[in-house]
Amino acid sequence: MNTVKNWRVEYTKEIEHAFSARNAGNEGMARVSARRAVGIIIREYLSRRGFSSQNNSAYKCLTVFISLPDVDNYYQAIATHFLLKVETDHSFPEDIDLINDAQWLAENLLLENPH
User: Fold this and answer.
1) Extents of the domains making up the chain
2) Which of 50, 64, 98, 114 is the most buried (most CB within 10 A)?
């Protein structure tokens, strides 16, 4: 399987898992899967720009991505959502939806529809 299909398959699997977890009432697992999905997207973005990030964690890829000077501030702001930690009561800011953010980054950052 080629690289394009690999990232799409892995991304789709994680997004579907995120929605399944949310539908089952497990918002924590939904956030974990959304973070994994965005890690796949950011890794693909960096790879397309010549960065060797295949072995780096999603967290590492996100920190590299948000530090790039040529990345639009809005994209960086969305990406920082994935670096937020939950509160001690496991809550997350209500206005942030990591699944929607991951889908938005996939569609806009890579300029293609991964579905």
Assistant:
1) 3-109
2) 98
